[in-house]
Design a protein that fits this description.
This protein is mainly alpha-helical and about 120 residues long. It is built from six helices and no strands. It has one domain.
Length: about 120
């Protein structure tokens, strides 16, 4: 029971970062599920993707919408690409050795972080 309280608090934390910075699943949830809750890499990724099935970002989207900060056409095209890309990525992911997958995940986070920090 106590683990579910901590998972709810993790979800709350990721939700705050999602609303604040547009991040959450890959940067907050996946590493926390692996290192704190001892999920495997694929369990953490699958669980995070399953969490996105309901409209979890709806309240945050409403706030951005009120301020005119949403490009609906781009969002629709991103959604279509993400829908099919997610299938392709999941099929590839489940073929990779778990250690390699974790290294790829970490490298992507490092590269994106470095670009965001040092880029223009």
């Amino acid at each position: 029971m106590m683990q579910f309280v901590w998972i709810i608090l993790l979800g709350l934390t990721a939700g705050i970062f999602s609303g604040l910075l547009g991040i959450g699943g890959g940067i907050i949830l996946v590493p926390a599920l692996i290192y704190i809750f001892k999920f495997s890499q694929t369990q953490a990724q699958g669980t995070t993707l399953a969490m996105m099935i309901p409209p979890i970002g709806l309240l945050a989207v409403m706030e951005y919408y009120k301020q005119g900060q949403i490009n609906w056409k781009a969002a629709a095209f991103l959604c279509a690409g993400f829908f099919f890309g997610g299938l392709i990525g999941a099929k590839i992911c489940l073929l990779l050795p778990k250690g390699l997958l974790q290294k790829i995940f970490g490298m992507v986070l490092l590269l994106v972080g470095a670009k965001m920090f040092f880029g223009k």
